């Protein structure tokens, strides 16, 4: 039996290994419903242009409805012999409706067909990612609201730097994920163009109406060069780049969650349902979810590199290399979607140990900068203030006490400008409340930032 659509040209069949090597149906069948959607729009246009009859179009629609039902019910028979999702569906269509099915591929090639399918798939995936990014930002904002006044040490170089509020720290991630959403939206604009009509590479001899198909499928525009339309996958690379940045943010957050949950730090606890135990150590509760997310970031980066490398040596126009774009793309989408879902759930499973955060902020002279700023406000040049406080910190180190625990007389040895009002400045609450400007850590600024994010999310 001659299974291949092109077998008339060949004198011998391909080996089973070649068949398996060149086939993509076992992964690209994921595009099936998009493939049908694209085919229906194409058929509608062919009929409107008088290229096929209205009767043929009706038959194609009937057949496709049947095929869609089979796929959704899970009883569509996918055949390796038919190579990919496109030929499997076309073959079944012809089985169901005869010659009308054979006319569907008029003025079309699998090259523009597959490029269309991927774009439809990616557009839907981006919309899912955008919705989940919103959910995650909302969940982190809720947690930030509960912790607008919770004080923790802020770090630079992983050394205690200045006190911040935990709410402010969480909102830093909300900002990052907001830019990730912007990058996804921007990528979506370039994904949302129609390649169909490019046919194999040069266009077609039939009087097609590409704008009509674009409109039917909800594309913003058509790809304006047929060679470009079938050959480039820059939009997929761009998407994977945006996904890599997103995962990089997830990974940084994961690293912090893991550290915060370490008993040595003890800033948070993560609900049991996101952790697992050890097969040998009965006491263990490990933060597996953030650790895995940190690990999965690597595979998304890998897919970005894979796609860039896939593209770099290809002459125009379509080459079979491009079939290799799908698995990295699918895996990137799956990884990002699952990660966003699980992080959104996990945000509500975080217990904040505010007393431990506060205790940690009281170590390491987190308010030393506040003391320097205090002296500047009393007229000392900043560099001199910096030096005076450095001496005070060394004295505290020797005396094993905090700046706020020194007596006024002792403090005045470092600068006579220091007066009784200094102690308000040296408290953690005074320190955070003083950073009261847009983008600062003061609790009322955190609340203003939360209102800003909530308004954004409501849009
Ligand atoms: N399965 C192919 C892909 O994913 C479809 C296009 C094949 N075109 C071709 N001329 N072999 O890219």
What is this structure, in a nutshell?
With 459 residues, this protein is mainly alpha-helical.
What report would you give on this structure?
With 459 residues, the protein is mainly α. It folds into three domains: 7-106, Orthogonal Bundle (Fumarase C, Chain B, domain 1), CATH 1.10.275; 111-146 and 164-198 and 221-357, Fumarase C, Chain A, domain 2, CATH 1.20.200; 364-458, Fumarase/aspartase (C-terminal domain) (Ribonucleotide Reductase Protein R1, domain 1). 62% of the residues lie in helices and 5% in strands. A two-stranded antiparallel sheet has the order 1-2. It has a two-stranded parallel ribbon with strand order 3-4. The chain has a two-stranded antiparallel sheet with strand order 5-6. A hairpin with a 2-residue loop joins strand 1 and strand 2. The mean pLDDT is 96. The structure holds arginine. Arginine is lined by residues 24, 28, 84, 110-111, 114, 320, 322-323. Arginine (ARG) binds next to helix 7.
């Amino acid at each position: 039996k001659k299974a291949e659509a092109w077998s008339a040209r060949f004198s011998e069949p391909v080996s089973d290994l070649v068949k398996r090597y060149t086939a993509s149906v076992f992964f690209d069948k994921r595009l099936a419903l998009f493939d049908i959607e694209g085919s229906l729009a194409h058929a509608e246009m062919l009929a409107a242009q008088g290229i096929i009859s209205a009767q043929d179009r009706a038959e194609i629609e009937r057949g496709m409805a049947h095929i869609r039902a089979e796929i959704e019910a899970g009883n569509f028979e996918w055949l390796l012999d038919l190579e990919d999702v496109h030929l499997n569906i076309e073959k079944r269509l012809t089985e169901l409706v005869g010659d009308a099915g054979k006319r569907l591929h008029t003025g079309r090639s699998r090259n523009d067909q597959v490029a269309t399918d991927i774009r439809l798939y990616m557009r839907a995936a981006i919309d899912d990612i955008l919705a989940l990014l919103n959910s995650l930002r909302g969940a982190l904002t809720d947690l930030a609201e509960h912790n607008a006044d919770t004080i923790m040490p802020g770090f630079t170089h992983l050394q205690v730097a200045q006190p911040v509020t935990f709410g402010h720290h969480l909102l830093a991630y909300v900002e990052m994920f907001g830019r990730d959403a912007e990058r996804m939206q921007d990528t979506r604009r370039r994904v949302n163009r129609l390649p169909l009509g490019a046919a194999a590479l040069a266009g077609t001899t039939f009087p097609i109406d590409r704008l009509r198909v674009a409109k039917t499928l909800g594309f913003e525009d058509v790809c304006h060069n047929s060679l470009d339309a079938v050959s480039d996958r820059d939009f997929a690379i761009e998407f994977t780049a945006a996904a890599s940045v997103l995962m990089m943010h997830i990974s940084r957050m994961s690293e912090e969650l893991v550290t915060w949950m370490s008993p040595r730090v003890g800033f948070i606890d993560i609900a049991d349902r996101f952790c697992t135990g050890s097969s040998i150590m009965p006491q263990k509760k490990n933060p597996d979810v953030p650790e895995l997310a940190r690990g999965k970031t690597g595979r998304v980066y890998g897919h970005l590199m894979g796609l860039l490398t896939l593209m770099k040596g290809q002459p125009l126009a379509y080459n079979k290399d491009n079939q290799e774009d799908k698995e990295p793309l699918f895996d990137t989408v799956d990884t990002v979607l699952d990660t966003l879902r699980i992080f959104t759930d996990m945000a509500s499973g975080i217990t904040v140990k505010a007393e431990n955060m506060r205790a940690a902020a009281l170590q390491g002279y987190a308010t030393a900068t506040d003391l320097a700023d205090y002296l500047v406000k009393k007229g000392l040049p900043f560099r001199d203030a910096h030096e005076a406080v450095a001496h005070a910190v060394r004295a505290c180190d020797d005396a094993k006490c905090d700046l706020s625990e020194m007596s006024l007389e002792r403090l005045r040895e470092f600068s006579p400008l220091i007066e009784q009002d200094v102690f308000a400045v040296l408290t953690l609450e005074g320190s955070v409340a003083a950073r009261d400007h847009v983008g600062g850590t003061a609790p009322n600024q955190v609340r203003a930032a939360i209102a800003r994010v909530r308004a954004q999310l409501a849009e």
